[in-house]
Amino acid sequence: MATDAHNCTLEEYEQLVTALGAEPYRARQLFTWVHRKGASSWEEMTDLPRPLRSALAERLELSLPRVLRRAGSEDGMTMKYLLQLADGEQIEAVRMRYPEKERARERHTVCISSQAGCAMGCLFCATGQAGFGRNLTAGEMVGQVVAINKELQRAGRRVTHVVFMGMGEPLANSEAVFQTVRLLSHSLGLHLSLRRIAISTCGFVPGIQRLAAEGLPVRLAVSLHAADDELRNRLVPINRRHPLAELVSSLRYYQEMTGRRLTIAYTLIRGLNDSEQQARRLAALVQGLKVHFNLIPVNEVAETGFAPPSPARVQAFHQVLEAAGHPVTVRQTRGAGIAAACGQLRATASGRPRRGGQVESGVAGVSEGGR
Predict the structure, then answer these.
(1) Domains: count for the chain
(2) Alpha-carbon distance 238 to 235, whole Å?
(3) Which of 142, 221, 230, 339 sits in a 20 to 30 Å window from 113, CA-based?
(4) Is residue 371 part of a domain?
(5) Hey, how many other C-beta atoms are within 10 angstroms of the C-beta on 347?
(6) Catalytic residue numbers, as ranges
(7) Same domain, 256 and 359
(8) In the sheet that 328-330 helps form, which strands lie side by side, from edge to edge?
(9) pLDDT in tens, 226-246
């Protein structure tokens, strides 16, 4: 069975081409064709000798995820992709455009999936409600970015930021995710800045500890959504395995090891976690940590009964956190009208009822010029 070409490192390419009798520099050409240019056929690789291309074709598979469906927002700023992998599993990715502003160039953020489905079971997430399929390989994650980048290249643009905030818990598939980060940031590939890559977690403590030790200067976003264990146990079931005290301890370790500011994502749900008391508990919980809060009013979805707080309620929550000395951003959700929240497009396509979740504008702040 052929190996996914997008799953291979430069070193693996070097071993392969030299085993086939070619010069080692051919591996660098191959890596650029696969990871930067997104070649879909061996015939495109005109700077590689034909015999080498034929030998590689017998050993490597070039296919990218197949686009089953696209759904775009009316303003053209968000595009949702339903993708099919080689074994038939379906996953989602989202492209978000941020126009050029003063002192900031136009940005194109791609939100990718790390698993087919998710085992975390978060109450307002459509992916979690649908259950877990399998982990994705690094090649399948890279393939999402390369496929969308090819579309952008036709318009003279390119992917500038990547966030692991699609389907799945990235840190429960940490080895493949870390490999993906290295492939996406390689100078012969898309050469994305590590500071423009964000990994999100719902609180998978072993993965946070592994990331702290890995030495990758990516951004870490933690989906918290509650400031006490009783409520978080309901909203984010992994909290029963890794309660808040353990989670916060792992975040302190991460910050000690990396010195990097954390992003805390907090989905605001009317009458459930949007009180000023919750805000005060939240500020106390992260005392001593360098954090930036992203407050995200939940998408209103009839099946869950969840609804966003009033603007006044959101502002009051915001003010409590700001008064405690933390930078705070209120994110506007993107793509609610096109089922662009995590898991919703796949659920719609398969006939399952839609549940909660959202894609936020400026996800985790990673699109803000790689701050």
Answers:
(1) 2
(2) 9
(3) 230
(4) no
(5) 20
(6) 92, 342
(7) yes
(8) 66-72, 78-84, 90-98, 107-111, 161-164, 197-201, 219-223, 262-268, 291-297, 328-330
(9) 999 999 999 999 999 999 999
